[in-house]
Amino acid sequence: MLGDISKAEKIYIACGYTDMRKAIDGLAAIVQQNFQLNPFQNSLFLFCGRRRDRMKALYWEGDGFVLLYKRLENGKFQWPMNADAVRALTPQEFRWLLEGLSIDQPKAVKKIEIGACI
Questions:
Q1: In angstroms, rounded to a whole number, what is the distance separating the alpha carbons of residues 115 and 118?
Q2: CA 39, CA 118: separation in Å to the nearest integer?
Q3: Which of 60, 91, 105, 117 is deepest in the core (most CB within 10 A)?
Q4: CA 12 to each of CA 45, 60, 107: distance values in angstroms, whole numbers, following the listed order
Q5: Residue-wise over 63-72: b if at least 16 C-beta within 10 A, else e?
């Protein structure tokens, strides 16, 4: 199905600003060269422009790339700004981002890693 991003195994966010004039090839090159990740893996890659009211998502469907674009009519995305960094997101953090919230919710209950308790 065209653009069924719910099948993505991982979600990555490109922190900082991305030139929103870039299309599929330019964004795939960022994923590969800047972040040393494979753009052909079953992952969703998120990019945001300087104004933070537009987002692009790149997803490989197995036979081609899907490029999704979202422009907010009111408000801005709460985008992390550590330039040249990539960060993995949980599905919950992705929902927060799309709802205009910060992906670092101070009152959210964090999952505990089993090895950390011992």
A1: 6
A2: 36
A3: 60
A4: 5, 13, 22
A5: eeebeeeeee
Predicted structure pTM score: 0.84
Half-sphere exposure of 82 (CA within 13 A, CB side): 4
Q: Taking 60 as the threshold, does the pLDDT of residue 66 lie above it?
A: yes
Segment 34-59, tens digit of pLDDT: 899 999 999 999 999 999 999 999 99
Buried b (16+ CB within 10 A) or exposed e, 28-42: bebbeeebebebeee
Using DSSP, state whether 52 is helix, strand or coil.
Answer: coil
Q: What tokens does 43 get?
A: 């992952």
- What DSSP designation does 63 have? S
| pLDDT digits 0-9 by tens, 4-22 | 788 899 999 999 899 999 9
Count of CB atoms situated within 10 Å of the CB of 88? 11
Backbone angles phi, psi at 86, to 5 degrees: -125, 145
CA 85 to CA 111: how far, in whole Å?
A: 23
Contact in structure between 11 and 88 (CB atoms under 8 Å): yes
Q: Report the SS3 class of residue 72.
A: coil
